[in-house]
Prior knowledge:
The complex is a heterodimer. Chain A has helices at about 15-25, 55-65, 95-110, 130-140; strands at about 1-10, 30-40, 45-55, 70-75, 80-95, 110-115, 120-125, 145-150, 155. Chain A is α+β, with helices and mostly antiparallel strands. In chain B, helix 3 (about 50-65) crosses helix 17 and helix 10 runs parallel beside helix 13.
Amino acid sequence: MRRHTLAVIVENRPGVLTRVTTLFRRRGYNIESLAVGETENPSISRITIVVMGDEKIMEQVTKQLYKLVDVIKIVDITDKRSVERELVMIKVKADVNVRAEIVQIVDIFRARIVDIGKTSLIIEVTGDSGKIDAIVESLKPFGIIELVRTGIVAMVRGEIK
Amino acid sequence: MQLKGAEILLRCLQDEGVDTVFGYPGGAVLPIYDALFESSIRHILGRHEQGVAHAADGYARATGKVGVCIATSGPGATNLVTGIATANMDSIPLVCFTGQVGTPVIGRDAFQEADITGITMPITKHNYVVERTEDVAHTVKEAFYIASTNRPGPVVVDLPKDVMERSIDYKPEEVEVNLRGYRVMKGYNSGQVISAVELIKTAKRPVIYAGGGVISSNAAEELRELALKRKIPVTTTLMGMGAFPGNNYLNLGMLGMHGTRYANYAIGESDLLIAIGVRFDDRVTGNIATFAPHARVIHIDIDAAEIGKNVDVDVPIVGQVKEVLQGINQRLDEVTEYWEWHQTIDRWKEEFPLRYGNSCEGRIMPQNVIEKIYDLTRGNAIITTEVGQNQMWAAQYYKFEHPRTFLTSGGLGTMGYGLPAAIGAKIGRPDLPVIDIAGDGSIQMNIQELATAVQYQLPVIVCILNNQFLGMVRQWQGLFYGGRYSSTDMSHQPDFVKLAEAYGAIGIRVSREEELDHALKQALQVTDRPVVLDILVEREADVYPMVPPGGSLSQMLGGVEI
C-alpha cells in the first residue's frame, strides 16, 4: 500500500465530480486528498486525487474510473518526475510573547503571514506534503485554532502533458 | 420545422428503430404522452413503474434490442429504480426516460420532484438531465449508443416538462456521437489470442466457463464452434444459460452455489479455465481462494475492469466475445483430445446426477414441474423466473437450447422480475411460448402486471410453485439458523386462481401430479390471455446440491442420496 497521485482529466460538466467521488465511495477506495478545477481548455476539468492502494487496487481504481463516460484520461503521476503542491492556511494562537518565534518558523518554511489578529495569525504555506506536515508540526505547540488545506495538485515536469 | 421537445423525442426514438415503449403516464410526462397519442410507436401501459422497467428489460433480453421505458417524475422515477438496478447488474441495454419538474423549479422541492440522476448515478451506465430542447436529439442518440455498445447497461434521460413542451426549429440531420471519454471497443490483442490458443493446445483438463457476455455479444455460435472443435466441456453461469445447448453432451449445466456437482468438480480439477463473458461472481466461485486451484485462466471480456477484479488471470483478452472467439477458432484445429478428462467427467455425471426425492406429503415435487415444462416445450420457449428456489430449479432442470430464452435477475436477484419480464419477452417474441416460473412469494411483488397481460391479450403462463414459504430463505434458516423459520411461513396467501380470474386471466389449480401435464398443455393452448397455474408443491423441498456460502466448490451439500 502506498500513496498514488492520479490526474483525472474529465469533461467540465455538472455532476462529474459526484460521479467520481460516488465511485470511490461505492467501491470502498479511500480518497486522501482531492482537488478540482478547470484547465487551459474550459471544456475540460482536472481532478487530482491522492489515494492509498497497492497495485491491484490502483488497477481497479483506474479501470473503474475509465468506465465513467465523462472521464477522458487518467495519469498516475506517482512515479513520474513531477511537482506536487498544496496550499494550506493555518490560524495559530500568537500573543506578543511568541510572535517573533512564529515569524522565524514562517521564514524558515518560506511561508507567509496573511492576517494579523490581536492574539492570532493566519499563515499561508505552499509545498509538497512533507513540507506542509513539517510546518504544521512546528506550529502545533503554539496552538492551532483552525487549519484548511486545498488538496494536492500535481503536474509532470518537462514538456509532456 | 417547428416541433415540441416531446415530438423531437419521438422522432429520435423512431430514428433509433424503436417501435415499442413501456411506460406509465403522469403529470411531468404529459407532453410526451400527448405526442405518443398520434405516434406510430406502440406504448405498453404497465400497472407499476417497476413492472414497466422489468418489461422493457425482458423485451431487451429476449430480442437483443434496447428496451425503452417512460415514467413520470418523482415517485414514477423512483419506482423504476429496482428495474434499473436489475438491468445494470445484468448488463442489459435500457434507455429510461423520466419526467422532471420544469427547469425553473428544479431544486425547490416542487411537487413530485426527485433527483433521479443523483439517485441512479451508481446504478446506471450513464445518465443525463436534458436542460434545453436543443439538446434532446443528440442526448437521445448518445443514450442509445452508450446503452447498447461495449458492455451494455441502462441509461437514464431525465426530461424536464418545459423542455418537452417548448417548440424549436428542428432540422432532422445526422447527429454524430462524439464522446471523448467513451470509445467503442474494436478488435483485440492478437498476441493474447495466440497465447490463449497455445494454452488450449497444451491443456489436459480444460473447461469453458461461459456467462452472460456470450449472450449479449451474440456469440453462442462461436462458443459452440470452440467447444465442439476440441470437445471442451462447457459450464455456464445463471446468466449464461442458453449460450450453449443444454442437450449437448459437453454441457455440464450450471456451476457455482447450486450448480451441478460435475460442473463444480470439473472446475476443481481443471488445468485450464476458459472464462468467457463472466465476472467471477461470489455465487459462482464460492471461496475464491479454492476456486479452480489447479487451473491457468484465460479471461475474455469486453470490460477491462472485470479482468483481475476477483481472480488473477494468466491470459486476459479484452474485446467483444464474438470477435475474440472468432480469432481463437481460426487458430485452432479440430482435434479430439482430453480423452481421460471426459472419462473422469462422465464418471462424475453418472455418480452425481441432479436428482430429487419423492414428496413426503404426497404433493408435487417442484423439480418435476420444471421437467414437465421442458418435456412440453423442448427448449423452444422463453422461460423467465422470479428469484429464489423457483429460479434455481428452473436453471437446474430446464435444458436451454438457445440464447435469449432464459430471462432471470441474476446479479441483483430481484423478486417480482419474472412476470413483467415475461410480458416484455412476449411482446418482443410473440412466436414463442413464454413461461414465468414463479414462487408464491415473488409473484406477489408484481402481480398487478397480470392486468397488463390481460389488456394486451398476451398469453404468458405463470407457473406458481406454491409452497407457502419464502422457500430459499426458509432453506437457509433450516440449514444455518437452526430451523428457526422467522417470517418465512406464508400460509396466508390469496387464492391465486380467483385472483387470476379477477384480473381476467385464466386460473388453474394443480394439486396432484397427474393433473400437471394436462394443466400445462391446456395453458400452452391459450392464445389470448395470461394463464396462472397455482401448483401446490412440496412445502419444504430444498435446492440441492449446494455450496454453503463461503465454502469450496468441491465440498457440496446434498443431492447425493435421497
